[in-house]
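INFO batch 0412 | record 1 of 1 | parsing
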Amino acid sequence: MISLLAFVLIILTALPLSAQTFLLPSDLYNGFDISKSLIPKDEILSGGPPRDGIPAIVKPKFETIKEVDWLKDEDLVTGVDYNGVKKAYPLRILVWHEVVNDVISGIPILVSYCPLCGSTVTFRRDVGEKTLTFGISGLLYQSDVLFYDHQTESLWSQLEMKAVTGQMIETKLGIFPSVLATWGEWKREHPNTLVLSKDTGSVRNYDRDPYEGYENSFSLFFPINHKSSRFHPKEKVLIVFSGDITKAYPFSELKKVKGSFEDKVGNQSVVIHFKDGSYVKASDKSGNPVKSFVSYWFAWYTFKPDTLVFTK
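INFO prediction complete | emitting tokens
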């Protein structure tokens, strides 16, 4: 006789992903303890895959430009340039893994990408006296990925930028400078860059986008609390921080401005650099990077509906 749990699991796997999200038993969170949580437990949803069903990259390998013949100039990369070390992390790899645990010039970093939210955020992995490594929990909050750290199994929200359950609860992640660029633009400005290798230890088709068509669609796969029709939900926005103040720079507005320009976020002067979507970053007047990352409009708005917005 089939057990009740087995019956439920059979039914779940036969349902569309959106339906599976709502039918999960309330105590089934891929084995994570969420008894203490900063976020509503009923808003922690299954994204479909089990824990580590999306395999994080823990020991990344890199190639030189001369070894890379599989990237197209229009492919997007997360670029990191720190203390003379330059690395590019292609989104066509990140879309299958979502997390790369890496070290750059002695600094442990976490390169993250949530395909559902279009959010490319790089963090530091050294938290207090701990250096953490991260995996993918298979769970979501507000359509955004929840990481977990291997050391304490706490859940971390990418766009809350902190731990939301477990031993590390309320601990914040520090943003590490990175940019979003096309491969063509990045390699032109950084000819000595290293590139994340497709030799990840996982069998994935890095020439295929499992989310093809999603970026242009108005549809969302998962529910969110706050919605805004001010821009297309998948409009890319550069998010810039100044203390507790954030400002969103929609790409459609940035396209109306030629070249770089100076702006204010709170009391901080920032310089926004934008090349028609091929390169975007924020710096101070001296050229030093300021805390920023790129996300879809809907994703940032649901987390920070009071965000400031740049318009031309």
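INFO post-check: Helices lie at 4-14, 17-23, 91-97, 183-189, 251-254, 297-303.
INFO record closed
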